[in-house]
Amino acid sequence: MPPDCPSPHPAAAIVREVGLRDGLQSLAMVLPTATKLEWIDAAYAAGQREIEVGSFVPARLLPQLADTGELVAHAKRLPGLSVSVLVPNLKGAERALASGADLMLVPLSASRAHSVANLRKTPQEAVAMVREMRAARDAAGSSMLIEGGVGTAFGCTLQGAVPPGEVLRLVADLLEAGADRVSLADTVGYADPAAVRRLFGQARRIAGDRLCCAHFHDTRGLGLANALAALDSGVARFDACLAGIGGCPHAPGASGNVSTEDLVFMLESMGIGTGVDMARLLALREAAVRWLPDQPLHGALWRAGLPRTYPAPSGAA
């Protein structure tokens, strides 16, 4: 691109850390609450201002996330931090409202098979649940945001192909049901950049700026490429997990989510500000090695290190 041409990308982007929920729920070990609090504090100190700290699910199902309420209470004391939680049902939404979190993410799948396996609800039943959550939120006089996350948007290991029209219908239905915003997720790592540009472009024509976030898994090594494609479509918020942990129980052998440190490095190298201090983030990544022994950790930047040219000199071609 000639130096006098404006960048097609935004000047800034947000990386929402979801490792404390999406990452840890996929691991067999239970990380101590004190360690999770240390993680939140270190991510905040590194400049991250959106963190998904857990999920309000029964402890018997996910003991890894049993301390979500305590994590929310701690995170809410950090000025300027947006605290998110995942809620799979109305009971979880009620607990989220009581916790004082800033945002509840409601996951639903465009794949009927995955929706039933994951939520024990069809996609339309999940949309109806969002309507109930909106009513409960409004009745409580809460300002908490409701985000409808459409998973398996690019395909499903259980169902196979997922028609784009079904994804787009759910985007429209979620907004009509009262979701404040929507996001799209490549839950099992089936997406490619062309498909991402196409589907996010179509979804943006329906949702506008309320299409707020992209969530990619690096299952087949295309996580960053897909993030760039979503960036091209106008998305400026991305989910990512420290050390690329996590995955989906319905995608056996999957490598996990896009690595936070790799995604921040790519964005910052492109001149897109994230507000994240890379040195502090890499120190947090080093701590993850101690916290998660014998667990599969990922990320190219961790292996290779920062290049000598980082950050690029101002005005570099």
TrEMBL record:
Q: Name one GO molecular function term.
A: hydroxymethylglutaryl-CoA lyase activity
Q: Sorted alphabetically, which InterPro entries does this protein's record hold?
A: AIPM/Hcit_synth_CS, Aldolase_TIM, HMGL, PYR_CT
Coiled coil spans: none
**Gene3D superfamilies per the UniProt record, alphabetical:** Aldolase class I
Q: What is its EC number?
A: 4.1.3.4
Annotated signal peptide: none
**Pfam families linked to this entry:** HMGL-like
Alphabetically list the UniProt keywords.
Lyase, Metal-binding, Transferase
Q: Where is the Pyruvate carboxyltransferase domain?
A: 13-282
BP GO annotations: ketone body biosynthetic process; L-leucine catabolic process
List the PANTHER family: HYDROXYMETHYLGLUTARYL-COA LYASE
Q: Which family does it belong to?
A: Belongs to the HMG-CoA lyase family. Belongs to the alpha-IPM synthase/homocitrate synthase family.
Protein known as = Hydroxymethylglutaryl-CoA lyase YngG
* Organism whose genome encodes this protein: Achromobacter veterisilvae
